[in-house]
Each structure stands twice: as C-alpha cells, then as structure tokens.
Amino acid sequence: MKKLSIKQLSDYLGKVVDHNIQSSLMIWGAPGIGKSSVVEAVAKKKDVELIDLRISQLAPTDLRGIPVPKDDKAYWYPPEFLPTSGKGILFLDEINMAPPAVQGIAQQLILDRKVGSYSVPDGWFIWSAGNRKEDFAAVFDMPAPLANRFIHLEVNTGLEEFKDYALKNKIDDRIISFLNFRPNYLHKINKNSPSWPSPRSWDIADSLLKADLDIDPAIGEACASEFRSF
Predict the structure, then answer these.
(1) C-alpha 80: how far from its chain's center?
(2) How many CB atoms lie within 10 A of CB 150?
(3) Helices (H), the chain
(4) Sorting pLDDT into bands at 50, 70 and 90, what band is 144?
(5) Residue 134 has pLDDT above 70, yes or no
C-alpha cells in the first residue's frame, strides 16, 4: 500500500487521469482528513464529471436496479445516477462501511465494470474510499477478490498542508496559532465523543467562530476548552 500526503494524493490522482489508468483505485485514511475533497478537486481540475455515491447509505437494489416485467421476462432497470456516456469519476465512498450485500454489488461494478445489463462507459474511472479499523470506524472486512483488484493508497494529513489550506481559505488566525502550539489536535479521534478535532471539523469551527458561536460542537469540549485557554 502506497502512503501519501494529501498533496501527494492530489498529484497521484491527477496523473491517473492524465494517463487514463482505468484500474480501480482505493483510498484509505482516517475520517475528516479530506479524501472526498481531494477527489472532487481533481475532477474539477481535470474537467471531468464526478458522481459521488455514499455506498454505505445504499441498498443492493439502489445499485443493481429493479426488475421490470417485459415480454414474459424480467429486465433489470439500472438507477438513473449511474453514468451512461462522457468521461468522469464514479466515486464509491465509504465502501467498506457498506454491508456485505451492497459490497457484493459494488464488487461487480469494480471487477467487471458492469452489473446486470448495465456497463460503466469506457471513459469513466472507478475510485473508492474508506476508513481503517484503527480509526474506530464501523467497517466490514473487504473480500480478498475485491481488494486484489484495487490500486491501494493510504493518505495522511499534516500540519503544514492544513496551514497552506487555512491560509488560502482565510481560516481564523487563532486556529492556525493554536495548532502550531498543539499540533496533535489537528486530528485526534475521540471514540467516546461524537465531536473531535480533524481538518474537516476545524474548517467547521472556523465558520462557528466567524458567527460568534461556541466551537465545542465541532471539535469537542476538551479541545475547545484548550483553544479558549490558549
């Protein structure tokens, strides 16, 4: 598995598009570090369409389609959100959070680029993303035949990258200063609380600060308390 920073991931995905590498790709990483945002940015930069599917929220029939009787046979009608032409990225996010039945349908798309009577057009890349077990995510094991068909990338985030993002997007200077003082709070999962600091939640905290609201709901009480003390 190749380990990349957020910036390196963006460059890597850009080259995959430039060289039209059609192999399916899996991005591993902790929640809240910007995996989906990078894919969205690459699609925009390369001027290709993006279909972002949260696989964990779908039922098998949402991908497989539904059977419709015609001429004494059942024809499977695919969902309208799957691509039929052009060029783009079919992004199956949270794939390993989906139950096995849904992963099975996704596996057909990834292995064969088709499911039922539907086929993924030649100009489309199939990329996926998911969290790791060590991130305390409720994930299912990925079947070996499915895992073996992916290019596996593991992405991590760092303070310097977040600072670059923060400066470009005018994140509150107090957030940058605090993270320089306590860099371990850039991303710190708290399995006992629904709110904890991550690059995504610091972005949300910035919006709350600008609205003169408490940032505890975004980054958690402990981190917010230290932030206020700082």
Answers:
(1) 22
(2) 20
(3) 6-18, 35-45, 60-64, 100-112, 144-147, 159-168, 173-181, 199-210, 216-219, 221-229
(4) confident
(5) no
Lookup: tokens for 112: 């064969």
List the structure tokens of 144: 């070996």
Smallest CA-to-CA distance from 26 within 156, 152, 144 is with 152
Shortest CA distance to 201 belongs to which of 226, 216, 214, 219? 219
In sequence order, what are the residues at sequence separation of 6 or more whose Cβ sits closer than 8 angstroms to the Cβ of residue 199? 32, 33, 34, 157, 162, 165, 186, 187
Helix and strand numbers, DSSP H then E, in the chain: 10, 10
pTM of the model: 0.79
119 Cβ neighbours under 8 A, 6+ residues apart: 113
